[in-house]
Design goal:
Distance between the termini: 106 Å
Strand content: 5-15%
Number of strands: 9
Number of domains: 3
Order of helices and strands: HEEEEHHHHHHHHHHHEEEHHHHHHEE
Structural class: alpha+beta
Strand order of the largest sheet: 1-2-3-4
CATH class of the largest domain: Mainly Alpha
Helix content: 40-55%
Largest sheet: 4 strands, antiparallel
Shape: rod-shaped
CATH architecture of the largest domain: Orthogonal Bundle
């Protein structure tokens, strides 16, 4: 047993310096503090000391209580030494374990409180709203909150598993494939952010990507509801007899192979009729890059007919705002085309241009504003395809109005012929 030498009164009256209590325990007095230290030889042979806490010397009673506590702590340190452990190292490891346990508890509490819905809204506020228009930002979050089951949205994010996510998304993808794909991509981004924030260990959306489309079923050709390109000229002839701004906007959308939102929000400041060019700002583009659209003769003619209807918008609604996203779809339905989608005309343009060899694939993809992964190549291609893209859109406009297109060898072809040529009607 350790032999102790100090009494409570001695602890209270000790002077500056170290006073031994025996067997490695010392009372250390400094001008403004008093504490206990334990000196020892570690199992590795090093001389070390560890603090055992402060000493309260306000009275003989408190000094005695502090002395008792210090002796008990020193005795625990001696037990560790007999077991071949270093008290300093063990104390540091114990503190690390306590900190880790506390952090784990905080993380678990945070994850329990963080539902998928809250994470979606936080991600939308931090990453979507700053770069998207108000309209596009609302579409982003609505696509999730209107289609994902509440039982999944309101579940703690750390409780979401791949199988549960798969079961929730398959019905959406079957019912509305395009929306289902967007919802999956957006949830995957939200869950990636949750991994980074430490709310979950792994993203449950990652392993289900292939299985999701497999269970939803492969789309049959034509299920995207793209009108066959051979039917487009006849359809446009009929469309021109329809009244209303939505009919004009739909024709413009088809002639320019643009997205619905881009045409609906087109502004006069973006259009140069003399140069026959429509420059869409990056903020309106899906790839967030400025895009130039070359205007065919019919597209220019259509735009001139729209002049004077609104100071800002090319295709205004009855209010001082763009038409709704459903305006063009409803125009199609009124004409009796209930299964054809507006976006499908982009697919029709792509099929026409690729199958018939109207232009190089790169020029066709550039005209559709499809983003190229290689930014250096993308920069080069945008410059290299300027003339060919102008010729491509001119040929599409001619095709859509039922005019013959001239091949590079001078041969005239009609929409009824199989066109096999490149760079028709190149700009001078």
């Amino acid at each position: 047993m350790p032999r102790h030498s100090l009494k409570p009164i001695q602890v209270q009256n000790a002077h500056i310096g170290d006073t031994s209590d025996g067997d490695g325990l010392f009372l250390r007095i400094k001008p403004n503090a008093a504490s206990w230290v334990f000196r020892y030889t570690s199992p590795s042979g090093r001389r070390r000391e560890t603090g055992l806490g402060s000493c309260n010397r306000s009275s003989v009673t408190t000094a005695g209580e502090s002395l008792t506590q210090a002796r008990e702590a020193a005795q625990e340190a001696r037990k560790l030494l007999r077991a071949g452990l270093d008290p300093v190292d063990e104390g540091r490891a114990r503190r690390e374990r306590a900190r880790a346990a506390e952090a784990k508890e905080r993380s678990a509490t945070k994850a329990t409180q963080a539902t998928l819905r809250r994470c979606v809204r936080a991600y939308h506020e931090q990453h979507v709203e700053p770069i998207r228009t108000t309209k596009h930002g609302a579409q982003w979050i609505n696509s999730i909150e209107q289609h994902v089951p509440p039982s999944l949205l309101d579940a703690p994010i750390d409780s979401i598993r791949a199988t549960g996510l798969l079961d929730a998304l398959v019905p959406i993808l079957r019912k509305v494939p395009e929306t289902g794909s967007r919802v999956y991509q957006r949830l995957a981004a939200v869950l990636d952010a949750a991994v980074i924030e430490g709310l979950i260990a792994v993203n449950p959306a990652t392993p289900i990507r292939r299985e999701l489309h497999k269970r939803a079923g492969r789309r049959e050709r034509g299920s995207f509801a793209a009108m066959p390109y051979r039917d487009v000229p006849g359809f446009l002839t009929r469309l021109r007899t329809a009244d209303g701004t939505s009919a004009r906007c739909l024709e413009f959308t088809i002639l320019t192979a643009s997205r619905t939102s881009e045409a609906l929000t087109a502004e006069w400041s973006e259009i140069d009729l003399s140069a026959r060019l429509w420059t869409i700002p990056a903020a309106k583009m899906k790839a967030r890059e400025q895009h130039s659209v070359y205007l065919s003769e019919r597209a220019v003619e259509l735009l001139r007919a729209q002049e004077g209807q609104h100071d800002r918008l090319v295709f205004p609604s009855t209010t001082d705002a763009p038409m709704s996203n459903m305006a063009l779809a409803m125009c199609l339905r009124r004409l009796g085309f209930k299964t054809v989608t507006v976006h499908g005309f982009r697919a029709g343009f792509s099929t026409w241009a690729h199958e018939l060899g109207i232009a190089q694939p790169g020029a066709i993809e550039a005209a559709l504003a499809h983003r190229e992964q290689d930014r250096v190549a993308a920069s080069y291609n945008r410059a290299a395809f300027l003339r060919e893209r102008a010729a491509l859109m001119g040929s599409w406009g001619a095709y859509c109005t039922g005019q013959p297109v001239t091949q590079t060898d001078g041969t005239l072809v009609t929409d009824a012929a199989v066109i096999a040529f490149r760079g028709a009607r190149r700009a001078a």
